[in-house]
Write a structure and sequence with these properties.
Strand content: under 5%
Distance between the termini: 66 Å
Shape: globular
Order of helices and strands: HHHHHHHHH
Number of strands: 0
Radius of gyration: 20 Å
Largest sheet: none
Structural class: mainly alpha
């Protein structure tokens, strides 16, 4: 009988701890600390608030406030959990960021794994601004720091 009570108590403690951890993880989901896991949750919980949060994220990336701002924006774009409506809306903004501040975007891209970079490169290859994007990337093909970005970009067909 004591074994059964101990098992029940252990299960209850586990459930309480899981609930606390889950609540804590949900509280951390915001545009300030954006992660791929929380993007669609932010979008589905409050559509208008999601778009209100998008503007400061884009603005931070556009002035290259810091590498974290650009990384957050690019992560939002390249995450598989980002709703397609958001990705479509972001394509023009993404090109503006490349055109206005390629160094900032490239610094952020240097920190990403290939699958995230591929999503971004592929979007430029499939966008109406492809020729212009190609020209911007081409300017960096001999650049010591960003040459690798150019080489990765041209690998995407």
């Amino acid at each position: 009988m004591n074994k059964v009570i101990n098992i029940i108590i252990s299960c209850i403690i586990t459930l309480v701890l899981f609930s606390i951890a889950s609540t804590s993880a949900q509280a951390k989901c915001s545009f300030e600390k954006i992660t791929p896991d929380c993007i669609s949750r932010l979008y589905s919980e409050d559509y208008d608030k999601f778009w209100d949060g998008y503007d400061p994220l884009y603005n931070g990336a556009s002035i290259c406030k810091n590498n974290t701002a650009m990384r957050g924006y690019l992560m939002l774009f390249s995450s598989r959990s980002t709703p397609s409506e958001v990705v479509m809306a972001m394509k023009n903004d993404l090109f503006k960021l490349l055109k206005e501040n390629p160094d900032c975007m490239f610094d952020a891209l240097l920190t990403f794994e290939w699958d995230l970079k591929w999503e971004i490169y592929d979007s430029f290859k499939r966008h109406k601004y492809t020729e212009s994007a190609d020209e911007i990337f081409e300017k960096y093909h001999n650049n010591e720091k960003y040459g690798v970005i150019y080489k990765e970009y041209i690998r995407v067909k």
